[in-house]
From TrEMBL:
Name of the protein described by the UniProt record: 1-acyl-sn-glycerol-3-phosphate acyltransferase
Record-level GO BP terms: phosphatidic acid biosynthetic process
Pathway membership: Lipid metabolism
Phospholipid/glycerol acyltransferase domain residues: 79-194
A molecular-function term among this protein's GO annotations: 1-acylglycerol-3-phosphate O-acyltransferase activity
Membrane spanning residue stretches: 14-37
Signal peptide span: none
Superkingdom of origin organism: Bacteria
The organism of origin for this protein: Rhodohalobacter mucosus
Keywords: Acyltransferase, Membrane, Transferase, Transmembrane, Transmembrane helix
Amino acid sequence: MPVSLTAAEYIRSILGIIVFFLMLLLFTPFIFLLLIISLGRLSSFVVESIAPLIVKPVFWTAGIRFRIEKRTDPIPCPAVFIINHSSSLDILTILALGLPRVRFVAKWQLQYNPIFFLLGHLTGQVFIRREKSEKAVATLKKNVSRLKRKNLSVMLAPEGSRKHPGIIGPFKKGPFRMAMDLGYPIVPVYFDGNRELSSGGFLFTKSGSVTATIHPPVSTDDWTLENIDQHIADIRQRYLEWAGISSEEENLQMSTQT
């Protein structure tokens, strides 16, 4: 259901978008210089420390109170982090997490923005064509060796797109196969509030609170091709529980929206 915004919230959202791109313009030369001087070795520093700094004033402008709740300490690294993806606001909350040594899997179209293209490739992010599943899988497989070699974590949205039926959409197998190939644990991250504040266009959002809960890791040591589907279903069930919705209610919503 679309989120209804007041005139004041539209104004704050527009100002937030402007602030976001101004912060990107301001920090891009600095990031570029850091990466050149360090020969790319400070890529993780950019993701862990500078990215949260960039989005902090955007949250303040848009009237969003962002909080991180850790239910695992320390945060596992390396790991495959997965998120529930239902809002354009996810772009900001992902950057605000500041997870250790993480790289993001993002949709190919983000590269059409020259700033995202430059920063994404300089820091080693992964861009995939979600609408072409075979190419997406090939891209993920190609990056497995790089992530493993550099001891990097990765973050993906198993729903694929934010435009899906239901509260928690069907989970694709790619992120979980990637975790098996890497030998990494799965770390579920649940965003509570993103969907309620923003469901429409880029960063148009209501004011309010968002909580990112980082849950304990799920080992993939005993996962096989024969039992992976059940493991995926079990993890998705956790997301449904965190969203406060039963499987029956979710199936009904998905059937009425397809």
